[in-house]
Amino acid sequence: MPQPRILVTGATGFIGRALCERLADRRTWTALGRTPPAETMPVGFQQVDLTKPLPAGIIPKDTDVLVHLAAYRGASSDVTGHFRGTAAATLNLCEAARRAGVRRVVLASSTSVYEPALPASRTLQEEDRRIHARPLADAFAKKWAEDAARLQALLAEPQSMLWILRPGLVVGPGMRSGSWVRSTIRRILAGEPYPLTGERGHHLGLVALDDAIEGFIHAIGAEPPPYTEKPGPIWNLVSEVWWERDVITALAEAVGVEPRFVPPATTDPVGWSEQPLSIAGDGGRWIRESGGKRTRPIRPLLEALARAERGA
Question: Distance (Å, rounded) from C-alpha 243 to C-alpha 225?
Fold first, then answer.
């Protein structure tokens, strides 16, 4: 798609900022965000709260691609906030995209749409049909609702193409102070023991920020792979799968601290001690269908973040 006209939501977020920097010098695009950027952006920026009624013409008629990165960032227990800020906002935005004649929507979902209680050693592949009809997982209601909303909104417009990108834990410079990685590093530096669920904790899918951005750029302009089911591809952006305990250990080693762990509880009403949560997802299709790219290693990124947090 030569020089597509792009609208990006969530443009001032972690992934949004990085994507906008990569797009600025070669495409015509517009950025939307709930909070104004800390620095001047190289393109037009409009401050919009997607949880409220959308202004008329929020998506220009000549827009080719909508990249929807915005999502509610409140507590997982705030079901109403998540519905209004993610599911309802996505429905409203996709309806605006339909009226504007947008032909392609790239939706940032998450590997956290997958329910808990999977075997701890497994990862899910996009080819597994069970990922399309999983029951609602309480802790991840916001992303599950987002996936449901985009289908309801977009399947009514058959000529629209939808790329669903489900990043795992995206790692790289610019992560928010309140992110899990940075807050965990501060806990390690303070000498606090880390509570694990099960012997090795969660099974996590990780991806470098630069690799995730390349995945979004590919989805903006590439033709879908052969035999893609309508309305479009579903990719898990996962390059490496780590146990949570190994992530903590790598962060602690980077700052020269001996990691400490809270022994797993013998009883757990959720059952995670016996069957730890696995939301890793498998990135095989993404890597294969985008050209078999070699992804960036995760450990150096984790170590750099730990050292930077220690020096802050």
Answer: 31
Q: What is the pLDDT of residue 249?
A: 96
* Phi and psi, residue 77, nearest 5°: -80, -10
CA distances from 141 to 72, 170, 171 (A): 11, 20, 23
| 3-state SS class at 135 | coil
Residues in the chain: 312
Please, are residues 69 and 17 in contact by the beta-carbon 8 Å criterion? no
Which is it for the CA torsion 264, 121, 165, 232, positive or negative?
negative
What's the predicted TM-score (pTM) here?
A: 0.84
Question: What strand order describes the sheet that includes 5-9?
Answer: 44-47, 28-33, 5-9, 65-68, 104-108, 161-167, 234-237
**Whole-angstrom distance, CA of residue 239 vs CA of residue 167:** 10
Beta-strand relationship, 169-171 and 194-195: unpaired
**Cα-atom radius of gyration of the chain, to the nearest Å?**
20
C-beta neighbour count of 267 within 10 angstroms:
7
Taken in order 305, 116, 124, 164, the sign of the CA dihedral is negative
User: For 137-192, how does the pLDDT look when each residue is reduced to its tens digit (9 = 90+)?
Assistant: 444 444 555 555 555 555 555 567 888 898 989 999 989 888 999 999 999 999 99
Helices (H), the chain: 14-23, 79-82, 89-100, 141-154, 180-189, 209-221, 244-254, 284-289, 299-311
Q: How far apart are CA 59 and CA 67, in angstroms?
A: 11
Q: Could you give the C-alpha distances from 163 to 153, 235, 244, 268, in angstroms and in order?
A: 14, 8, 29, 38
Contacts with 259 (C-beta within 8 Å, 6 or more apart), sequence order: 188, 194, 248, 249, 251, 252, 253
Q: Are 239 and 287 in contact (CB under 8 A)?
A: yes
Q: Pick from 44, 41, 59, 47: which is nearest to 105 by CA?
A: 59
Q: Which of 282, 244, 276 is nearest to 261 (CA)?
A: 244
